[in-house]
């Protein structure tokens, strides 16, 4: 229940602080006094977005705070879901700076508007005139039947399954589209892959191949020059080695005479050793040389194949060619496996659809079971509200489509008088009748909803006389189940309140302010008399007011 409300610097309200009791509370006041301002302030602590112009004093921030006793209600799980600390006495606060920046708090913890709305919607329900249109919405109609039939677990299971199905179906649609694109390129990809694999060049070294090609292509020249070089080195009389030996012997004779000669001798010895190595390597190359046209053709073919693949795929190394080939192989493999993936996802979707249908049938069956009793109860309440000939009907039609609340289509139908056909509520009910239908629904749902408080903001619009009295009785009875507020302009309803507050304007030093005060018994008589006849109420109006209060 709403224990207390404080509002500071909000529109016409300078500063207001009130405490509330349980039961049925009425709030009255002249048109324009600020009743809607009060509702607007409460809406802000329930998560409604703030207007930039709400601050009365533009130099000060606006602060609205509500203290709620929620200990008797099972709301801890809602706080846990929002990762907020739970307290049986919960404080919702909204602060709006002069610049329009808004901050929200739950039990002094900063929260966003989504969190504030999630908690606020479970604590208090504000029912304004425009919310009569809720009854026209499918979600509202389904929600009524699902609460009464204890269907919420089934609906939650259905919603989870539907989300899973939509995800799988989205994946399936994507991969089917992808398959169309891949199929168009798979033949080409397979051709390229076969071309690379059949070339047998992935394990080759291009530099080695080019060296082999050079050797085989220039055999005559290389052989001739190497033989000539070998003769220059090895000729017994004129060869380099023979002359180096003579040079060594000559210098060695004088090497003992000077370190300079000895150094020259060492260099000659090193030169001879190096020349011996060169001679040995030349002979080795000569022995390994071969004249092999067939091998040359094979090497040239491999080099041509490599260069052709390089040009075709804009690649410059064998390593890049290997990487390109491996990626291409993955594409081909992926394309070849895509049918398996599609088959798997199709089976998953079929399984989910079957499970959805089973749960949807449970939901439909449970809804059907409660419809007759709900119709009977709502017609009884409407009869009490002066609509004795009105009839209510609910069309619940099973369909093949997966809707967010099941596989049903729903329509609340109504007729106010005998001899007429059932029509949609918006076509058959007047504004006053719509208000009474909503009140009837709210009074029935109070037996099921764990909602601490409800505010009816002029739900009595369009009714008067005996009907308004009966509406007051229903709201008073509702107050025995949950804290109920009625902002009303009807004296018959105001007289039913167990607590009575008046909202009025006060002019202080030329500044208009909206004020709110709790009325005692005498104040209530005066207020209700004014509601009956205006400010100049007669003695009979006061007598009538006392009679209404008693």
Overview of this structure, please?
- The structure is a single chain.
- This protein is of the alpha/beta class.
- Among the domains are: about 1-125 and about 450-520, P-loop containing nucleotide triphosphate hydrolases (Rossmann fold), CATH 3.40.50; about 180-335, no CATH class.
- It is built from 17 helices and 15 strands.
- The protein has a six-stranded antiparallel beta sheet with strand order 2-1-4-5-6-7, covered by helices on one side. Strands 8-12-13-3-14-15 form a six-stranded mixed beta sheet. The protein has a three-stranded antiparallel beta sheet with strand order 9-10-11.
- Helix 14 (about 465-480) links the parallel strand 12 (about 455) and strand 13 (about 485).
- Helix 13 (about 430-445) packs parallel to helix 14.
- The chain is elongated, with a radius of gyration of 48 Å.
- The mean pLDDT is about 85.
